[in-house]
């Protein structure tokens, strides 16, 4: 099995890359059978985007801090671990944006699509789901539309729910909602199509971010799960993702 070692710039990740490259042949990403990501959640996310682009599976090993979707690091028995790894398939979110100058752009998100206010003034958003207006006006710092894979990232920091990878739902979580003050978000089926319309866009500018792709001064944002695009994550059988998801919800 030909492997490409994709490492963060940190000392620990680079040291691990050197050890693994000495023990197993490093292959350019375009020619590899699998991408082995070394680092934390950020480097794993970048590796997943490379995997999407090249249609390569990704196996992560934690050389960062949290590393929720990464396996434990070891430079031993890598080939055996890859051969017995379990596969989890993910479909990313596709974000389509219309900007104030009339342009359109789109991007993919494995973790989440987030809208964020650009100035001191709060954003005003209209929330439409599957063609039905659910909130005429949401005044907030922003909003997050998260996949299960991203539910333990920015979504969790904004007090959104943790979602098991097999749950078949997406999380819509406000950031510092002012009106309606008691609205804490919603869980939506993966088939849902979300449209966010920015009210008073010129006075209250908003940016849209798909993972690490940011588009500023947006007017409308549509987001849906793109089932035509797929990425494969590889996990050690003993990792037990369901147990990790449950455990994380009871962390102090």
Structure description:
The structure is a single chain. A hairpin with a 4-residue loop joins strand 5 and strand 6 (104-109). A six-stranded antiparallel sheet has the order 6-5-16-13-8-9, with no helix packed on it. Helix content is 18%, strand content 40%. The mean pLDDT is 95. The protein is built from five helices and 17 strands. By secondary structure, it is α+β, with helices and mostly antiparallel strands.
Low-pLDDT segments, ≥5 res = none
Structural class: alpha+beta
User: What name goes with the CATH superfamily of the largest domain?
Assistant: Probable inorganic polyphosphate/atp-NAD kinase, domain 2
Reported for the largest beta sheet, the result is:
6 strands, antiparallel
Instruction: Supply the number of structural domains.
Output: 2
Strand content range: 35-45%
Total of DSSP H or I helical runs spanning 4+ residues: 5
Work out the radius of gyration: 19 Å
Secondary-structure element order, N to C? EHEHEHEEEEEEEHEEEEEEEH
Any idea what the shape is?
A: elongated
Measured distance between first and last alpha carbons? 41 Å
CATH architecture of the largest domain: Sandwich
With strands numbered from the N-terminus, the spatial order across the biggest sheet is 6-5-16-13-8-9
Considering DSSP H and I runs of 4 or more, what fraction of the residues is helical?
A: 10-25%
Q: What's the mean pLDDT score?
A: 95
Number of strands: 17
Under CATH, the topology of the largest domain can be stated as: Tumour Suppressor Smad4
| CATH class category of the largest domain | Mainly Beta
């Amino acid at each position: 099995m030909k492997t490409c070692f994709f490492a963060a710039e940190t000392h620990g990740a680079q040291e691990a890359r050197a050890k693994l490259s000495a023990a197993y042949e490093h292959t350019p990403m375009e020619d590899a059978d699998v991408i082995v990501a070394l680092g934390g959640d950020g480097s794993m996310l970048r590796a997943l985007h490379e995997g999407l682009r090249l249609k390569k599976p990704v196996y992560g090993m934690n050389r960062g801090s949290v590393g929720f979707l990464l396996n434990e690091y070891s430079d031993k028995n890598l080939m055996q671990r890859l051969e017995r790894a379990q596969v989890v398939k993910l479909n990313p979110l596709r974000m389509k944006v219309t900007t104030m100058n009339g342009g359109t752009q789109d991007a993919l998100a494995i973790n989440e699509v987030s809208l964020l206010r650009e100035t001191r003034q709060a954003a005003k958003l209209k929330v439409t789901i599957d063609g039905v207006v659910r909130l005429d006006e949401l005044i907030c710092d922003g909003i997050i539309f998260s996949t299960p894979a991203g539910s333990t990232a920015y979504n969790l920091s904004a007090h959104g729910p943790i979602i098991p990878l097999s749950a078949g739902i997406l999380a819509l979580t406000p950031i510092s909602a002012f009106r309606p003050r008691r609205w804490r978000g919603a869980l939506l089926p993966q088939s849902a199509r979300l449209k966010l319309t920015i009210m008073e866009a010129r006075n209250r500018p908003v940016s849209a971010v798909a993972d690490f792709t940011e588009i500023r001064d947006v007017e409308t944002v549509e987001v849906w799960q793109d089932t035509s695009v797929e990425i494969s994550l590889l996990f050690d059988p003993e990792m037990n993702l369901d147990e990790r998801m449950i455990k994380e919800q009871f962390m102090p």
